[in-house]
Amino acid sequence: MYKTDLSVQISTLQMKNPVMPASGAYDYFEDNADVFPMCTLGAIMLKSVHRYPRPGNKPPRIAEVTGGMLNSIGIPSIGIEEFLNKGMLEHYKTLNVPVVISISGGSPVDYVEICKMLEGNPFIDAIELNLSCPNVGTGLQLASDEVLLGRTVQSVRTVTSFPLIAKLSPNVTDIRKTAKISEECGADAVTVANTYMGMKIDIQTKKPVLGNIMGGLSGPAIKPITLHMVYQAYSVLNIPIIACGGIMCASDAIEYILAGATAVQVGAGNFVNPMLMKEVIEGIDDYLAKNGCQSLSDIRGIANCRKN
Ligand SMILES: Cc1cc2nc3c(=O)[nH]c(=O)nc-3n(C[C@H](O)[C@H](O)[C@H](O)COP(=O)(O)O)c2cc1C
Q1: What's the pLDDT at 307?
Q2: Active-site residue among 39, 115, 133, 305?
Q3: What is the DSSP string of 118-179?
Q4: Are the C-beta atoms of residues 217 and 195 closer than 8 Å to each other?
Q5: Cβ-based neighbour number of residue 156 at 10 Å
Q6: CATH number at residue 24
Q7: Cα distance between residue 113 and residue 189, in whole Å
Q8: Separation between Cα atoms, residue 63 and residue 66, nearest integer Å
Q9: Does 127 appear as a known binding residue?
Q10: Is the per-residue pLDDT at 203 higher than 90?
Q11: Is residue 47 situated within a structural domain?
Q12: pLDDT tens digit sequence for 4-50
């Protein structure tokens, strides 16, 4: 099907290519189902599920800004119990692609409880810990607090045998520290990264546009910054990195792989171009073939002089 070998492996999670949607920024059964061939994806990533039901934040929850968008959705969730009882995972498994569930919480205990409930579930292939939502509660992000981050990853590791992906916050001084803590505490991979805290003010009303005042910035504006974080994280890690931030075309994804990423996630770009992930997969394949490469490992990290 491909001209080259695009397969990647993250612990026991086997993907036929390195491309998956970013959590919360993609809908599998409504908006995109009729236009996008889901079976082409390397994996599907679900919207974060919380331990308990949550309404999400006050509207407006979305604002367009130059080079991207702000969201302050705040993870509305039916809670993990209802999510499991409703058979949501069985539903996703019908897409015949590995399923990564994203979970979020307010404290390490929340994550542990959810993972205990998921242990042995035949409908998931990996767990991503959303440790970095800027829109939940007080805005405290577990992945910005090194102690809490370590405690969360370590305690979850003791209760789950699924591949564990720690989704990190870019709102930190040095991503190398939080990435390394995640690795040392048992994560099988890290996702670099979530959104950047930002805001927009309406100069007519003289008030913040978002109901939550602040939100998370995503889209093309963040790509150079997240690319640098992937580059930095790769220099200290021995586990795979999933790059996430501002991918709008195949070249963006290729830059991330050259910096050291094993896989990539596409978020806001899907809103602009519903076929983007297919184009990214094909574009990576073309690039490898044109450059005489046989597999992703031929290019992974080769732009990274800190590692080589
Ligand atoms: C509308 C929206 C909802 C999101 N919801 C979640 C979420 O539930 N869990 C999560 O980990 N990240 C969430 N994110 C963050 C994305 O997964 C991703 O990390 C971020 O948007 C950066 O990637 P991008 O620039 O490709 O959009 C959300 C982003 C958007 C735009």
Answers
A1: 74
A2: 133
A3: HTT-TT-SEEEEE---TTSTTS--GGGSHHHHHHHHHHHHTT--S-EEEEE-S-SS-HHHHH
A4: yes
A5: 26
A6: 3.20.20.70
A7: 21
A8: 10
A9: no
A10: yes
A11: yes
A12: 999 999 999 999 999 999 999 998 888 788 889 999 999 999 999 99
Give the residue carrying structure tokens 């809908």.
27
Asked if residue 304 is part of any domain, the answer here is no
The domain total for the chain is 1
Pocket test for ligand 1, best of 61, 169, 195, 270 (most atoms within 8 A of CB): 195
| Residue owning tokens 């996430």 | 244
pLDDT at 201 over 80: yes
User: With contact defined as beta carbons under 8 Å apart, do 123 and 99 qualify?
Assistant: yes
| Mean pLDDT, the chain, whole residue set | 94
Arithmetic mean of pLDDT, 241-267: 98
How many alpha carbons fall within 13 Å on the CB side of residue 30?
3
- 207 labelled as ligand-binding? no
For residue 255, what are the domain limits?
A: 8-298
Strand partners, 196: 217
pLDDT-derived band of residue 236, with 50, 70 and 90 as boundaries? very high
Q: How many CB atoms lie within 10 A of CB 257?
A: 26
Strands (E) in the chain, as ranges, are 8-10, 13-15, 19-21, 44-45, 49-50, 62-65, 68-71, 99-104, 126-130, 164-168, 189-192, 196-199, 201-202, 207-208, 214-218, 241-244, 263-266
Q: Side chain identity at 273, as an amino acid letter?
A: N
Question: Residues 120-172: pLDDT tens digits?
Answer: 999 999 999 999 866 555 445 688 889 999 999 999 999 999 999 999 999 99
Could you tell me if residue 273 is inside a domain? yes
Q: What is the pLDDT of residue 140?
A: 56
| Residue 134 pLDDT | 62
Q: Which atom number of ligand 1 is nearest to the Cα of residue 75? A: 8
Instruction: Examine residue 42 and state whether it is found in any structural domain, yes or no.
Output: yes
Cα–Cα–Cα angle for 208, 214, 218, nearest 5°?
A: 115
Longest Cα pair distance anywhere in the chain, in angstroms?
A: 57
**Rounded Cα distance, 78 and 17, in Å:** 31
The answer to whether 293 is a known catalytic residue is no
The closest residue, in CA terms, to atom 22 on ligand 1 is 245
Q: What is the mean pLDDT of residues 261-284?
A: 97
